[in-house]
């Protein structure tokens, strides 16, 4: 698992991924979609414009990974403003995050023997999804900025967290090389 993104004409990127890597990435993106929950599509006959102004949740998610993906805008110091901000922004943010994960799944489904080629727009979706995957896995692994987290990188092979740590590191490498290809 050492694929690195490379620049392609038109502002996109490409990466060589084998079938196992594609399967892992696709599975993680599907799990991310499940974590976000179902989208709120307007019901048949419902005014789509009214759906744009539908209010979202006002309470932070109880799941730590979702709380990391949808943090309080004003922190615990100002819960009223955080609730108000969340109510009017979280639905749109969830929609965008779903679109990012779906773009990853679509491009992986279209992959061929040479790997995955992304347009400039798909590259932006991938950056969002890779970031969300890393945040989610990092939250589940309780990764922080502390020096103590370095022990995660030296886990014995029989530690049940080892596959997730390996995925976390791999996703970070993918994310870093994708960012590098998109920089002018």
Description:
The protein contains six helices and three strands. It is mainly α and 184 residues long.
What characteristics describe this protein?
mainly alpha; 6 helices; single chain; 184 residues
Radius of gyration: 18 Å
Tell me, briefly, the overall form: globular
Helix coverage percent: 55-70%
Alpha-carbon distance between the two ends: 26 Å
Order of helices and strands: EEHHHHEHH
The tally of beta strands, per DSSP, is 3
The low-pLDDT segments are none
- Number of helical elements: 6
Please, what is the average pLDDT? 88
Lateral arrangement of strands in the main beta sheet: 1-2-3
Assembly state: single chain
Structural class: mainly alpha
Percent in strands: 5-15%
Largest sheet: 3 strands, antiparallel
